[in-house]
From TrEMBL:
Family: Belongs to the Dps family.
Lineage: Bacteria, Pseudomonadati, Pseudomonadota, Gammaproteobacteria, Pseudomonadales
UniProt-listed Gene3D superfamilies: 1.20.1260.10
Protein name as annotated: Starvation-inducible DNA-binding protein
Domain Ferritin/DPS: start-end pairs: 27-163
Length: 163
């Protein structure tokens, strides 16, 4: 993650190598959180039971599909900044701020875990703004804004199920 991918042709996009490295590292944390959230949501989709089964099963499928598509956008931004994207469980565990859930929780606990995880992903994205703004990196800022919006809206919708 710390080595640029093409040293024979330096990247000259108006963002310093040091800033690109720091931004790529931050995005790697977001990618790890996003992958962990994707896997959690897919697991819950497979294992949800109870009176809310159909609604949650469908909702979780919509959510994990959105997460899956986001993974590519985040990884490709890391690559565009000249760094390899992490792609192993070992790397994701080291980088993620979201903990894995043990066992199969009850449906309301699944919803609570997902609210917490979406909020964590939003915090991971939000904490990158000072660096991204200082580096004048609008594409990453746009990506972060999109991800925060999705995570905050999804957390709100999930939280509404618990009222």
């Amino acid at each position: 993650m710390t080595t640029e991918t093409n040293e024979s042709m330096p990247i000259n996009i108006g963002i310093s190598a040091d800033d690109r490295k720091k931004i790529a590292h931050g995005l790697s944390g977001l990618l790890a959180d996003s992958y962990t959230l994707y896997l959690m949501t897919h697991n819950f989709h497979w294992n949800v039971t109870g009176p809310q089964f159909n609604g949650l099963h469908q909702m979780f499928m919509t959510q994990y599909t959105e997460q899956w598509n986001a993974l590519d956008m985040i990884a490709e931004r890391i690559r565009a900044l000249g760094h390899p994207a992490p792609g192993t469980y070992k790397a994701f565990i080291q980088l993620a701020s979201i903990a894995e859930v043990e066992g199969v929780p009850k449906s309301n606990d699944m919803v609570r875990h997902l609210v917490t995880a979406h909020e964590a992903a939003a915090r991971t994205a939000r904490k990158m703004f000072p660096l991204v703004d200082a580096a004048d990196d609008q594409p990453t800022a746009d990506l972060l804004t999109q991800r925060i919006e999705v995570h905050e809206k999804t957390a709100w919708m999930l939280r509404s199920l618990l009222e």
